[in-house]
Amino acid sequence: MSGEPRNATGAKRVLSRWDLLSIGLGAVVGWSWILYAGLWSSTPGTVGGVIAWVVVGLLCTLVGLVYAELSSAFPRAGGEVVFAFEGLGERAMFAAAWCILLAWGSLLLFETITFPIILEGLGFRVPHVGYLYTVAGQPVFISTFLISLLGNAAFAYLNYIGVRFSAIFQTLAVAILFVAAAFFCLSGICLGTPANAKPLFTSPSGFFAVLLMLPGFMSGFNAIPQAAEETYVQPSVLGKSVVYTVWGSVLFYALIVVGLSLGAPLGIRSGEGLVVVKAVDLMFGGSPYARFLVLLASLLGMLTTWNAVYVACSRLLFALGRAKIIPSSVAALHPKHATPHRAILLLFGVTSLCCLLGTSKTIYVGIVNVFSFFLVVLWLLVSVSFIRLRSARPDLERPYRAPAGKVVGFGAVLFSAAYLLVYTPVTPSGLAPGEWLAVALLVLVAVVLYSLWYRGAGYLPASERKRFLSGN
């Protein structure tokens, strides 16, 4: 593998179009569907749940088209950070860097924290020994911390030794995941009944409660631009991969909601635990084979997200370090594996420590809601950058051009801005006071970092920053 082509920074160009697609799909889909599909179909009603996914799918399609064009025009690790810098300048770039760092970091933390929960749900015996303390009403044990630590270490190592290994794992796992989704949907259609799907719609508050959280479950298509420097495909293919990831992910979730709605009555769908597994047990009379396939898919879903987030977040840190937005020592590549090994170790260390927060539902649901908020803010920044670049730099080489150009851009801006309202008290279900406090603290931290580091020791002339970020 020593003869593999490398880019200007020394990273290996080994990722195919399927690798990119599996990284994106794996990052988006994950395992949450097995836990949340019941809520998606019961809280707003079954039709309400499908409509909520359609709404989010439309938003993400517009934003995905914006990402597709910008990814092909600026095929650089850092993705959104580069787009915001080129379109809106340094302050917007710093805001985008903070938002995407929070989004990826939170998602990685979510996967690490909930690892013991999903293992228990899958039937593995998870010991609860070595009581430490209680967080948000949930006791924290040394044993569950060590389990999260081991899972986290496995993916840190997989990414440490080379992106090719993680891409192979990702492609195989995502293929199995989609086969399982198709199986579940067909099972619901063939073995379920339309009577199970009642109620079709519950209330506006139920609809908005689900709408609030769905962008968080669509995060991941923006993982693809982070791998831009490690693929050998044309920039236009890179852009199209973003759009295909959005559509593939919405299709996956729709299959799950339809299958569950037909396959299980409201009593199961609105219950606690792994409702998809309960639905499979109901449809197949407790068959261990059907149950195993769904459980395997959920486990693979979790692992693919974990792996993809490691790929994306480590490349993001690498790009931020290379542009001296964070200390440049993070941007070092491993001399043998050509991976951003220091960024990977940093992620491993920080997320492992955060596992000491325990497995309280209050903690990880709050993480999902807060990082979803910052994700939508990021989409808004990228969409505005897209419009700005279309006007200011019409001659910019765009190997993939979004159809309808500015119409798509303005649509993405309006949709993103409108979606932010979902998080406010204007709608029946906004962020909780504690979540708003977390948002305020994170914004304050960003302001302090910008003032003390970015304008201080991390200062660079704009031309130098552009050279590191955009490569020209």
Decide which structural class fits the backbone.
Answer: mainly alpha
Rg calculated over all Cα atoms: 21 Å
Biggest beta-sheet profile: 2 strands, antiparallel
Shape: globular
Outline the structure in words:
The protein is mainly alpha-helical. It is 70% helix and 2% strand. It contains 17 helices and 2 strands. The chain has helices at residues 17-29, 32-42, 46-73, 80-88, 90-121, 142-160, 163-191, 204-218, 235-263, 266-269, 275-283, 288-322, 341-354, 361-392, 405-421, 433-457, 462-470; strands spanning 131-135, 138-141. It has a two-stranded antiparallel sheet with strand order 1-2. Helix 5 runs antiparallel to helix 12 (288-322). It is globular and about 65 Å long. The mean pLDDT is 85.
Fold topology:
Blueprint: H1 17-29, H2 32-42, H3 46-73, H4 80-88, H5 90-121, E1 131-135, E2 138-141, H6 142-160, H7 163-191, H8 204-218, H9 235-263, H10 266-269, H11 275-283, H12 288-322, H13 341-354, H14 361-392, H15 405-421, H16 433-457, H17 462-470
Antiparallel strand pairs: 1-2
